Amino acid sequence: MSTASLRRSLESAALSSNKAKLSEIMLPEDDATIIKSKDDDLTRIKPRPYPQVLDLGGKPALDSKFNDDYSLRGAVGVGGGGQVLLGFDERIGREVAIKELLDQAANEDIELSARFLREARITGRLEHPGIVPVYDLGTKQSGAPYYVMRLVRGDTLAKALKTCNDEVLAEHALSRRLSLLDRLIDVCEAVAYAHSKGVIHRDIKPGNIVLGSFGETIVLDWGLAKVENEADLAPLVSAALSKPGNDADLTRMGDILGTPAYMAPEQANPDFGGVDARSDVFALGCILYYLLAGHPPLRGSADEILAQLSSLAPMPSARDPKLPMPPELIAICDKALAKDKSLRFPNAAALADELRAYRDGRLVSAYAYSRSELLRRFIARNKVALVASLAVLLAILIGAGLAFKFGVEAHKARNLAVAEGEIVKQEKQQVERALADVTRISNHNLTAANQIADSILGNLNEMRMGMQQAAGSLRTNADLAASSGLLDGLLQRYPRGESFATTRAPGTIVAVAPAKYRQALGADTSQLEHNRMTLERGVPILSRIYQAPEGFAAVTMVVPIKQGKTIPGFISMRIKPVDFLGGLLAEDAQSKKRTVWVVQDDGLLLYDTDPQEIGLNLFREERFNQIPELRQLAAEIADQDAGVGYYQSQSAGQSEPSRQIAAWVSLRPAENRGWKVVVLEAW
C-alpha cells in the first residue's frame, strides 16, 4: 500500500466519538458524541467541518505501517479534526497510542494545530505516575503533527461511578462510591504535581480519569491546560452563553473552556476572578460531591448550569440526612466548592492533605469537631495507654476479689477490699476527669485558633482590598508622585498599619505616611525580596518577618500599581506583628494558662505571648532540642495544616512537669505566604 493511499485510509477511519480517550481500544460510553440528557461527563470539541468517511473496516489494516518506527494495529477513536490509533513501537516492541491530526485539519486550522502541539508538550513535561507519558512527537510527510503516548488500559472514573449507582440500596451505592476515595486522592496528587509545574488542567472530570486494572489512576486530556506566564490559545467569547441547546457536559472550545458540570465559577464568569490552581480544586470538589451524592453538584442544560455558576447563590451541599455521609468529607467538599475562590483550598496538594487526613483518621481542619467527637478521637489515639490503665484497674479488682474469697482474716480482707475499691473508684474518676479536661481544652483551643485565624485573614484581606482600590486610582506617574494624601487616607482607614508608602519601580520610595518616616523618601528598596516578587508576579505579596531599619520586627504587604500591562510601582504597608496580631486577639484568647503563637511557614515566630520569643524559629531553634516532645510537636505543626498535639517539659527547680495541649490551624494571607495559628494551654 502506498503512503498516499495509507494516509487516505487513515483519514477516513472514523468512530462515533469526539476526543479520543485511551482506554482498552474501545471508547467508554461517557465519551460518545451522542449526547444523552442525563449524562454528566460527555466531552465534545466544537464541531469542525472536516469530512470523515468510513472505510470497509472502520479502522486501519492490521499491521499496516504508520512510519519507519511504528506500525498500526487498529483505531481507538476519531473526532475534532484528529484521531487516536492503536500502534506498535517496532523499536522497543510495545503497544502505544498514536494521536494525530487529520491532514485537512492540520492544513486549514492553525489554531487547532497549535493547540495539538501545545497539548503534547504540556503532557510531555509532566512526568508523574498519574499522568500519561508522551514517548515521541513528530510530523507526518503531509506536515500534520502526531505524538505517541503510553496505551492506557482500563475504565474511566465516570464508568466506575455509574456502576456504583447501579446498586439498589442507596447506602450500598454510597459505600461503593466512597471506596473510590483513594483514587480521588491519587488524582489530587497528580494535579498537585501539575500545579507545582505551573500547569492548570481546566477540564478535570470523571471522564478524563482512567482507573487501571493494577491500581493505576491516570489523568488524561491536557488539551485545555493553562500554563502560568504563557498566553492562552482559546479566546473567551461570552456570546456563546446565549446559544440555545448547549449541553452541560460538553468541553467547549472557542466559547468557554471546560465542562459546565465540573467548571469553576471563574471559568464561566470572569467577575469571580482569574483561572488558577483553585479552579482545578473546584473541579476536584465536584468529583468529591459525586462520590458523596451520586451526581455532580449542578445539573441541567449548559445554560442553566452556567447561570447558576454566575450567580451569587452558594453551591449546594452534598449533605443528605437519609444517608450516613462522613461529616468531615462534606466539610471538605463544601470548602472546595466555595464560589469565592479565596475560601477554597489553595491548590490540589492542600485538598489531598485533607483527604488523606480523613482517610488516616487524623483531624480535618475544614471540619469543626464536637467535644464528643474529639473525646472519641483522643481515646482512639491513646488506646494503648488507656488499655494499660484499665488493665491495672482490672488487676486491682481481681486482687480485691481474691482477698475476699481466700483471705485468712475476713475482717481485714473486707476492709482491704473496701479500701482498694475506693482507690479503684478514685483512679477511674481521675481518668474520666483527665479525658474530659483534655477534650475540653483541645476543643476550646481549636475553636480559638480558628477564630484568631479568621480575624487575621479578614483584617489583612480588608487592608489588601483597600490598598488595591487605592492603587487603581494611581493612573499616571504624576499621580504616583503626588500620592501623600492617598497614603494619609489609608493610614486613617487602617490604623493597624504601622506605615504606608508608594514606590516607583524598581524600588525608589516617593511618598510615605506617617510623617515620622519621611527619612525613607528616596531610599532604594529594589533589592528587597518582596518588592522583586511583586514586580515579577504582578500580584499582592507578603514579606517574611524582618528587622526594620527603625529597630522593630516588621512584615510588609506589597500591592502592585498596574497601568495596562506595565507595573510602574507599588503601594506597601508595613505592620508590627507584635502590635497588629496582639491587637486582633480577643481578650479571652490569652490567659495565664494559655499561650498563642503565630508562626510563619518556615517556622519563624511572628507573634508570641512572650515578646522575647518573636523572631525565633520554632522548627529549628537549637534550645528547643532540649525538649524532645516540643521538637516532635513542632514537626507535627510543620507537616499538618491543622491538628491537636501535646508535650510536657520540666525545668530545673520545678517539682511537677509542665504539660501543654496545643491546637493549630493554617491560613494563607497572600499567594506566596502561609501562616499557622497555634493555641496552647497548660494542663
Automatic annotation (TrEMBL):
Transmembrane parts of this sequence: 384-404
The protein's name: Serine/threonine protein kinase
Domain Protein kinase as annotated: residue spans: 70-356
Pfam families tied to this protein: HK-GC-Chemotax_sensor (PF22309), Pkinase (PF00069)
Keyword ATP-binding: yes
PANTHER family recorded: MITOGEN-ACTIVATED PROTEIN KINASE KINASE KINASE 20-RELATED, SERINE_THREONINE-PROTEIN KINASE NEKL-3
Keyword check for ATP-binding: yes
Molecular function terms from GO: protein serine/threonine kinase activity
Keywords for this protein: ATP-binding, Kinase, Membrane, Nucleotide-binding, Serine/threonine-protein kinase, Transferase, Transmembrane, Transmembrane helix
UniProt binding sites for ATP: K99
InterPro entries, per database record: Dret_0059-like_sensor, Kinase-like_dom_sf, Prot_kinase_dom, Protein_kinase_ATP_BS, Ser/Thr_kinase_AS
